[in-house]
Automatic annotation (TrEMBL):
GO terms for cellular component: cytosol. Residues 136-281 form the Tetrahydrofolate dehydrogenase/cyclohydrolase NAD(P)-binding domain. Signal peptide: none annotated. Homodimer. This is Bifunctional protein FolD. InterPro entries: Aminoacid_DH-like_N_sf (IPR046346), NAD(P)-bd_dom_sf (IPR036291), THF_DH/CycHdrlase (IPR000672), THF_DH/CycHdrlase_cat_dom (IPR020630), THF_DH/CycHdrlase_CS (IPR020867), THF_DH/CycHdrlase_NAD-bd_dom (IPR020631). Belongs to the tetrahydrofolate dehydrogenase/cyclohydrolase family. The keyword RNA-binding does not apply. SUPFAM superfamilies: Aminoacid dehydrogenase-like, N-terminal domain, NAD(P)-binding Rossmann-fold domains. GO terms for molecular function: methenyltetrahydrofolate cyclohydrolase activity; methylenetetrahydrofolate dehydrogenase (NADP+) activity. GO terms for biological process: L-histidine biosynthetic process; methionine biosynthetic process; purine nucleotide biosynthetic process; tetrahydrofolate interconversion. Residues 8-117 form the Tetrahydrofolate dehydrogenase/cyclohydrolase catalytic domain.
Amino acid sequence: MTARALPGAPAAEALLARARERLAALPGGAHLHVIRLGDDPASVSYVRLKDRKAREVGLRSTVHALPDATPEADLLALIARLNADPAASGILVQLPLPAHVNASRVLRAIDPDKDVDGFHPVNVGGLWSGETRLPPCTPAGVLALLDHYAVPVAGKRAVIVGRSNIVGKPLAAMLLARDATVTVAHSRTPDLSAVTRAADILFAAVGRAHLITPAHVRSGATVIDVGVNRHAVADEPPRLVGDVHPDVRSVAGALTPVPGGVGPMTVAQLLMNTVTAAHHHAHP
Ligand SMILES: Nc1nc2c(c(=O)[nH]1)N[C@@H](CN(C=O)c1ccc(C(=O)N[C@@H](CCC(=O)O)C(=O)O)cc1)CN2
């Protein structure tokens, strides 16, 4: 068997087209503010991507690139200013933050109605009680990708490997809301392959290059690779690989590639969330 590929680009384009349509119905437009501290190369590249895609969709976009040593108080002051600015539709702080900054205090400072990452405790709680308006971008992007390829979720056994606040935990909440039977496993789960082989849909979001091998996958299962790891092999320059080993293609029924799978969905969903936030400001 060779797995059907589920590329992110067509699904992301469809999501961006919907975001454009909804933006056209907003006379005042929408404005995304992205805050980045320091020069971590991955963060610089993700923020550049968000800014470029936002402009392509027709959003206004401002990147606040602050020095790594920016005191937390200055960051909180910037967030307070943007919270109070009626023209600022969405605010995002790129993660990870430097060690001297308390990330949870910073995320809590963002107005939940402008929290386009969906990381504020009010939005996290809303996600678990079925009331969220701004879902976290990667899990929501994963579900949009499954919908795009008409992969059913209701009634399926879903296994998530990874329990991060950004992906694993919110994805579990969203799959439960869609009537999947959900198991969350992680790097310390004993006999991981016995757990993952029960999955109709397996989500790998643990951040370990090639952790998931054919031995972890039931024949014909759908496998969603959320991992983005910079992986060095022998003398080659590091390249981007997922949490799923390429040999899984011979066992799975369908598989997302890395790069070019879930990654583009994260950015598309962020822009959709920004348009949603702007709609709520316009029609509270
Ligand atoms: N505030 C946030 N910080 C972080 C988030 C987040 O959702 N909000 N997620 C990740 C990084 N991330 C977005 O910020 C992100 C990761 C990957 C991609 C992506 O498109 N990846 C491409 C490959 C890009 C490359 O060549 O490096 C792919 O997988 O095809 C977009 C966004 C951590 N921080």
